[in-house]
């Protein structure tokens, strides 16, 4: 069980005093089997990659950090009253769906692309896109290419499965020659790329940004090419068959996006009262019955914002040091795709 980052750590006593975290009310059981199980365990089992900078990677104190880790924390804050009550389960890419299907984890935040066949054939349901991504390429600078279209005749390391299809579609459409070098695990592909077994490494650009930032002194020897060649929306996921749990996981993310839209932050969340707008009062449980409709208490979203932050805070904590452009991950008013779906 992990603790919150030091800069986000807030004592339970302080939260109670602020009216943000009080005694969790007794709620009707049975609406969501997964919610009941999570509460019985007293912790949320969340599947993550666990080795990916910006998404899920332990810091020097062993605390899991990143946008996926915070997605797990948001669900724990909503359902258990405490964002620290998460047991992170590190998974290889090939283990993600089976871990969720088998019940090893309650929710998955592991850089999983939302695709039709994953949702129709795998018994899982995609809850909310927390990162809009796209397939990209990393190359050694000495290769002298500036664009993926310049990779004619290149050997390309990637993962078996969806990566093969993306590669074939892209190079085939352009009429470019290429040689796929396929691996079952990302660690093997990265090792092969660094060893010079292929000219380029192709995977979701988020993975490439994470990988590039992990190279230390060797970082300047490589570059991530600017374009992406596919849409790869990364999403939280749950097992099918528990629609109430699906709603909770989906709206845990949407609550953080709405908080950014309405200017609610972890620092000011306790300052809103009767003078707040109707939308803000609904989000914070000051009016309406949003919590009841989810099988939660009125302050479920308030706890998420207080203990984890709004979406901008999560983004800045995860990617601010890299200077990454939010681009598609901005709010619509800033040209992005993170829509604050109405909470009413």
Describe the structure.
There is one protein chain. The protein is α/β, with parallel strands linked by helices and 344 residues long. It folds into two domains: 12-133 and 233-324, D-Maltodextrin-Binding Protein, domain 2; 135-230, Periplasmic binding protein-like II (D-Maltodextrin-Binding Protein, domain 2). It has 13 helices and twelve strands. The chain has a five-stranded mixed β-sheet, with helices on both faces. A five-stranded mixed β-sheet has the order 9-8-10-7-11, sandwiched between helices. Helix 3 (67-80) packs across helix 9 (243-261). Residues 1-30 have low confidence and may be disordered.
Distance from N terminus to C terminus (CA atoms, Å) equals: 34 Å
What is the average per-residue confidence, as pLDDT, rounded to a whole number? 90
Structure classification: alpha/beta
CATH architecture of the largest domain: 3-Layer(aba) Sandwich
Strand segment count: 12
**Using only CA atoms, what is the Rg?**
21 Å
Low-confidence stretches: 1-30
Helix content: 25-40%
- Large-scale geometry: globular
Summed up, the domain count is 2
The name of the CATH superfamily of the largest domain reads Periplasmic binding protein-like II
């Amino acid at each position: 069980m992990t603790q919150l980052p030091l800069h986000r750590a807030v004592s339970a006593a302080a939260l109670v005093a602020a009216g943000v975290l009080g005694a969790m009310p007794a709620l009707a059981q049975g609406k969501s089997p997964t919610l009941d199980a999570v509460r019985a365990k007293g912790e949320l089992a969340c599947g993550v990659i666990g080795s990916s900078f910006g998404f899920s990677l332990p810091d020097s104190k062993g605390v899991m950090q990143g946008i996926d880790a915070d997605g797990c924390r948001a669900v724990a804050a909503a359902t258990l009253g405490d964002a620290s009550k998460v047991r992170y389960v590190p998974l290889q890419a090939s283990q993600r769906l089976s871990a969720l299907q088998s019940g090893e984890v309650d929710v998955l935040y592991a850089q999983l692309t939302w695709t039709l066949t994953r949702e129709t054939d795998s018994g899982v349901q995609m809850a909310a896109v927390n990162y809009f991504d796209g397939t990209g390429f990393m190359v050694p600078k000495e290769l002298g290419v500036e664009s993926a279209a310049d990779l004619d005749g290149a050997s390309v390391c990637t993962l078996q499965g969806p990566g093969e299809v993306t590669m074939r579609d892209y190079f085939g459409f352009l009429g470019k020659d290429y040689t796929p070098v396929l691996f079952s695990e990302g660690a093997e592909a990265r090792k092969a790329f660094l060893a010079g077994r292929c000219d380029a490494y192709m995977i979701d650009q988020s993975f490439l940004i994470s990988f590039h930032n992990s190279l230390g002194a060797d970082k300047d020897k490589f570059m991530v090419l600017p374009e992406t060649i596919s849409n790869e929306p990364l999403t939280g996921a749950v097992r099918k068959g528990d629609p109430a749990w699906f709603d909770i996981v989906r709206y845990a993310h949407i609550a953080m996006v709405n908080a950014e839209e309405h200017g609610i932050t972890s620092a000011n969340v306790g300052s809103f009262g009767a003078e707040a707008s109707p939308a803000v009062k609904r989000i914070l449980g000051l009016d309406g019955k949003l919590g009841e409709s989810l099988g939660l208490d009125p302050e479920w979203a308030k706890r998420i914002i207080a203990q984890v932050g709004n979406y901008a805070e999560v983004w800045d904590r995860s990617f601010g040091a890299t200077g990454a452009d939010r681009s598609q991950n901005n709010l619509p008013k800033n040209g992005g795709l993170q829509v604050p779906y109405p909470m009413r």
